[in-house]
Amino acid sequence: MKTLGLLHTSATLVPIFQQLTSEFLPNVKTFNIVDDSLIKNVITCGELTPATARRVVNYVGSAEAAGADYILVTCSSIGAAVEASAALTKVPVLRVDQPMADRAVLSGKRIGVIATLPTTLQPTSDLVTRRALVANKQIELTSRLCEGAFDALMSGDAATHDRMVAAALRELSSTVDVIVLAQASMARVVETLDPAERKVPILASPAIAIQHLASIL
Description:
Layout: E1 3-8, H1 13-24, E2 29-34, H2 37-45, H3 50-65, E3 70-73, H4 79-86, E4 93-95, H5 98-107, E5 110-115, H6 118-134, E6 140-145, H7 149-154, H8 158-172, E7 178-181, H9 187-190, E8 202-203, H10 205-216
Parallel strand pairs: 1-2, 1-3, 3-4, 5-6, 5-7, 7-8
Helix pairs in contact: 1-10, 3-4, 5-6
């Protein structure tokens, strides 16, 4: 039986991925490593610093040492460190948003990226651009930052967060072919939209990443 190690920067993601792995990877053992100081450091510094990247690499190494046959890192803000760690391990390492980026590139030329944190918007937009180059496809990328939405969510005002994200989704859906959610926390907002407002595919990384792993594990 294969073993999947998951590295999270928020404990809130553990049950989400437990449900997905139970559904799509019933014959794969899983374990979780959680350290929310990683994303807190990124937010405080406004970027992924070398010190935080080194810690990500160390955690990935720990997951390999714990017996993981495959490692999934579920935070988009630390994507660059995830890619660096992949070169240092003997098992495959996947950043959660890569399968989503690949699907977006296949879905249309005009791609929108929405985030509530600038530290997530930039890495995700960069990833989509690079995956388009790998696919030899020209794209037009539009990025939207829902400024203030993340702070509202962290202060307990989920309603304001959801309202801001929903407004951005409605606006962007009129100008692009597909929308990428840079953070998994925004996925639940999609369900609140009227079906008529979902004019284009809206992609969230967790399910797409696990479905991708199900096809190769």
